[in-house]
Amino acid sequence: MPLTYDQDSRLKALSPVLDEHAEWFGRVIRQVFYPDPNANQDLLAAPDGFEHWAREAESEDAVEAPALLRMRRLYNDMRSSASDLVKHSMISPEKPVKKQFDSFVILCDEFVAHIRRMEREMALSDSGIDLLTGLRTRKVMNKDIERELERRSRRGRPFCLALARIDHYAAMKDSLSQQDHDAVMISAAEIIKQCIRSFDDAYRLNDGEFLMCLKQTEMSGGSAGLNRLKKLLEEHAPYYSMQGQDVRLSMSSCVAEPQPGDLIEDLITNMRADLDRYGGDAETALEYFELSPLQRFVSDQPSVDDGLDKKPH
To answer: DSSP assignment, residue 279?
Structure first.
């Protein structure tokens, strides 16, 4: 499907958004390192070009609503982080704590990355958004994760993948009508969306599976993501009728921290296999640390203890 006129207009309007963002980023950094209590507050406030662009894109249906909502969340997080840094610079000559500064830089990096991705996706026929759930599709998943692996190799920034699977999905699918099945999938996707942060990504796979790409975090952060998922399921999981009984939606999950050189499909296959092997009946969460192919081969032999470092929690 070719770009419509509205889409093409909105695509061209993204370049000025990036330009004003780059100028604003430089002003904030200067204020952080060279505090000026008399600095012009208007110049240090986040520019409004993106919000203006988003309103226009929304009114023209030029961008998928879920993608636009994600961008607005990320923009607001970035603006809030910058505001905190600027306020600190106005009242104290001391530099902010490194964690606070790093958070702002990461949010800015992710904002630029999302704008660039939106530019690419608007230029393609497929937006990469699953129409039922609003999550990203498997079609764009590999490119997204390959980009994160490249960033890990180049900048040393870790990230985690979390595979979440609806428990007893095959039986549920056989028991429910298409309408009820879709309602459960939408509910599961909404919980996944609440679980991730503004700059994370989530994908709908097949057979009741979802993959979350949790960026800028090591395994401890990935485990925290599984804990968030468990808590959200406890609080918000819907019930559905199966074989005359009301059953609460539950999910089992596995988190892994990819390393440079890992193959995405192999990693997901291994995570899926480990859920099958160690998952039990329902609501299992596993930490998974990838082994080399040789280590995995050895660990699968019946005469040798399993070498995988996995921790249900």
So the answer is: -
Distance CA 122, CA 7 (A): 7
Beta bridge partners of 285: 253
Q: How far is CA 270 from CA 36, 229, 274, 281, in A?
A: 53, 21, 6, 19
CA–CA gap between residue 181 and residue 176 (Å, rounded): 6
The CB density around residue 194, as the number of other CB atoms within 10 Å, is: 13
Nearest to 63 by CA among 200, 112, 137, 72: 72
- 0.85 exceeded by pTM: no
CB atoms within 10 A of CB 124: 12
- Is the separation of the CB atoms in 306 and 273 below 8 Å? no
CB atoms within 10 A of CB 300: 14
Buried b (16+ CB within 10 A) or exposed e, 33-65: eebeeebeeeebebbebbeebbeebeeeebbbe
Give the containing element (helix H, strand E) for 60.
none
* Per-residue model confidence as pLDDT tens digits over 275-297: 888 765 566 767 654 443 434 44
Which tokens hold the place of 168?
A: 């007893």
Per residue in 102-134, pLDDT (tens digit) is 999 999 999 999 888 877 776 654 567 888 898
For the record, the structure tokens of 268 come out as 């997901």
CATH class, range 136-299: alpha beta
Q: What angle do CA 234, 70, 72 make, to 5 degrees?
A: 125
The dihedral formed by the CA atoms of 237, 238, 243 and 244, expressed in degrees to the nearest 10: 130
Integer CA distances (angstroms), 29 to 20, 38, 94, 303, in order: 14, 16, 14, 58
User: In angstroms, how far is CA 244 from the centroid of its own chain?
Assistant: 36
